[in-house]
Specification:
5-stranded mixed β-sheet; 5 strands; alpha+beta; 19% strand; 186 residues
């Protein structure tokens, strides 16, 4: 609940910042937005640590460099996955790295659970001022969706909103499901 409220605060500060002209108010809103994003990142880390077993060793948070390993794990679980990276890889803020990884992870998990016999493709595009993700599958979901028990699309939307990005997700006309994300890089 706290994370949701802080997310709303960050989104509102970002929207207001874009609506006001450059100046002191614009800078204050930008600062509020950045501090809120940092607080959410730290809160998610803390909650993740609290949820894990005490015997679990602490490890660095995953990022985009870990996508090949994730794709291999999903392949081993039964969903063929192709991974394509376009553009020049560069250092990104840690929060965006983690959010992008988690979005891909959740989309592939959803495909594994709900797409049936399917193939998936993950595309990562580094633009000059953005990071784009596209995760698509060609599966046919069963008539009755299974409950996921996870954070699913809601969690993806929260991660994208945290960085002032855009998420489009839904069934594809030719079958399957697509998740498309645009994360601005400042």
């Amino acid at each position: 609940m706290i994370a949701h409220n802080v997310s709303r605060m960050v989104v509102q500060a970002g929207a207001e910042r874009r609506a006001v002209p450059q100046g002191s108010t614009h800078e204050v809103l930008e600062t509020v937005e950045e501090i809120g994003r940092g607080a959410l990142t730290e809160m998610r880390r803390l909650v993740g640590m609290l949820r894990s077993d005490a015997d679990d060793p602490l490890a660095p948070q995953p990022g985009l460099d870990d996508l090949p390993t994730l794709a291999q794990q999903v392949r081993e679980a039964g969903l063929p996955v192709a991974l394509r990276v376009e553009g020049e890889r560069r250092a990104l803020p840690a929060g965006i790295e983690l959010s992008a990884y988690r979005i891909v992870q959740e989309a592939l998990t959803n495909a594994l659970k709900h797409a049936g016999e399917a193939r998936a493709e993950v595309s990562v595009r580094y633009g000059p001022d953005s990071l784009e993700l596209e995760i698509v599958d060609d599966g046919v979901a069963p008539a009755a969706e299974m409950p996921s028990g996870g954070h699913g699309l809601v969690g993806m939307r929260e991660r994208v909103a945290l960085y002032g990005g855009r998420l489009d997700a839904g069934r594809r006309a030719g079958g399957g499901f697509a998740v498309r994300v645009l994360l601005p890089i400042r």
